[in-house]
User: Fold this.
Amino acid sequence: MTERRNPMQLKTITELLHLPNFQVEKVLEQTETAIHFYVDMIESVAPVCSACGTVHHSPVHSVGWIRVEDLPLSDKRVFLYVPKRKLHCPQDGRIRVEQFSWLRGRFTSRFADQVYRLTSITTNAEAGWYLHLDDETVYRIDRGILEELASEKLFPVPTPATMSVDEVAWQKWHKYVTNVVDIEQRKVIWNHHGRGKSTLDAFFKALGKDNSSTIDAIACDGAKGFLSSIRQHAQNALIVLDHFHVKSYLNDALDTVRKEQLKKARKDKNTDLADLLHCRKKFILMQGRPSDRQRNILDQLAELNDAVYKAMLLKEQFLEIYRADTRKAASIGLGQWITAAWRSGIPAFTELAEKFHRKRHFILNYFLRKITTAISEGINNKIKRLKRMAYGYKDVHYFLLKIHQHCGLLNPRLQLKYE
Ligand SMILES: [Zn+2]
Assistant:
């Protein structure tokens, strides 16, 4: 271990590191990849107890030191050796070690902040790779900061003017979390594990009765539980059946028809039709506006299979409704669509016709408040990405915090209006 004592150099490094009331005493070691500094207090001040958080003037019991990592200098990792005093804590009568506000466990606070900034834009695994930290260390720092920020920033819950509520599966076998998005602010403002009425009730409870009654419009998937919670707590809110969900109901119905007909075609050994209906072709059926080549395939479909063709036309017809300018025009279009779907005799679509008839007011409310669902869709995609990240989020609490970190109130980039 080389030891250097150059007062000029140490003064410069001290200024560079800029630690509160600490100066560099020695450069303990310098390698290709790291520099190790021994630091000590500039002015002796009474220690702050790590157990009770107050200053004690009791005599120092002993002095030890810890090694902490700081931000890199010139692409070298920086390690600081920091002396720490032990003292008698009058609160609990035990020997306790002192704490420094600029340290966070085995890291400087600014290093931990760096970890947090990285985990806010990328996966924990990638942040760890970048900073030479193992997954467990990244997890501990990230979670620690998230929990601290959560206690400051998640309450009181801000009242949205317009909001959307949606559930996401976070594990197989019916485990869900519910997220509430402030549509204007474009962020998740509240989330909780579970779904349905009792979960959304908890949101309104957190918001309070008065605030809940000021919400202007709410977009949701039209599920019973959410509807009854909204009716009970946010009586003044216009309920809009989410654009995105309406379209996904439609795609599901179309896919059901496709699968049924594919099964039938295979059974009948109708290879032309089976080939057309094979899942590789599925994307064509899902697209709103087919190209000429795809149109050709659709024409073949029209000849070969009536049910799928009809289903496809029903889908196209439905998408037309959303191009209407007024609620009235949309209402006429929806009425015609429901009749056509009924008459098709295709079970998946007669069911859908019934559903859309029941929920028609919510579908048409979109033409009164064009709550854009692109935001929740964008957020849902981010959440899906989060789920794919390392740490499978076996712990739902951490998953909820990560959602806030990436798309909600704990995102350090949220001051930027547009991402
Ligand atoms: Zn104490």
